[in-house]
Amino acid sequence: MKKLEIKSLQSVNGVLFGSDKTEVRKQFGSDFEEYPKKEERTLEFEKGYDEIVQRMAKIAGKTVEEFLKGVPPVDLQVFDDYPFGMIDYSDDQIFEAIEIPSDKGINLIVDGINCSDFNVNTFKSLSDDFVWEPQDTSWTSYKKQISLFCPENDKIVECVLFGCPGYYDSLNEE
């Protein structure tokens, strides 16, 4: 999938946030790897996690060890890893977020604005409430439930997350 059209807080390519996993997979297809939630890490999970960490470290231009210094503990949440990014599900298997790395070459349209260049200022034009969160090395909009992962500095977006309504509310309360 080379084009993603996102309507903040609503949908991705017409798939509504809040849809169940079956509907998401029907719409996005079968070209994904599922990483199930487990109480302990399985070999399958370890392999998938290691591949993702290696990919993100490469994007950041760091060794895996350097990259992991800034990565929070592993969340064993269920997700589907598609060629265009990751679909995150709630414990009830409901579509709640999409994460899109900058190295996928995706034509990314958000609320009618072309964000394909992953320019931080373009993304920040989507909402007036982005705040820099140095502990997460991210710009976050709680109004639009968007996070811009910028591990090197506050200007280069390596990954963007779009969440459903309320996705970051618990983080905002802390």
Q: Can you walk through the features of this model?
A:
It is a single chain. The longest helix has 18 residues, at 43-60. It is built from five helices and 13 strands. The protein has an eight-stranded antiparallel β-sheet. Strands 3-2-1-8-9 form a five-stranded mixed β-sheet. By secondary structure, it is an alpha+beta fold. The mean pLDDT is 86. Strand 5 and strand 6 (85-89) form a beta hairpin.
Terminal CA distance reads 36 Å
Helix/strand/pairing class, anyone? alpha+beta
Question: Biggest sheet, in brief?
Answer: 8 strands, antiparallel
Total strand segments? 13
Strand content: 25-35%
How many helical elements?
A: 5
Radius of gyration: 15 Å
Round the mean pLDDT to the nearest integer and report it.
Answer: 86
Which blocks of ≥5 consecutive residues have pLDDT under 50? none
Describe how the helices and strands are arranged.
Layout: E1 3-7, E2 11-12, E3 15-16, H1 21-28, E4 33-35, H2 43-60, H3 64-68, E5 79-82, E6 85-89, E7 95-101, E8 107-110, E9 113-114, H4 120-124, E10 131-133, E11 138-141, E12 146-149, E13 159-163, H5 169-173
Parallel strand pairs: 1-8
Antiparallel strand pairs: 1-2, 2-3, 4-5, 5-6, 6-7, 7-13, 8-9, 10-11, 11-12, 12-13
Summarize the model shown.
With 174 residues, the protein is α+β, with helices and mostly antiparallel strands. It has five helices and 13 strands. An eight-stranded antiparallel beta sheet has the order 4-5-6-7-13-12-11-10. Strands 3-2-1-8-9 form a five-stranded mixed beta sheet.
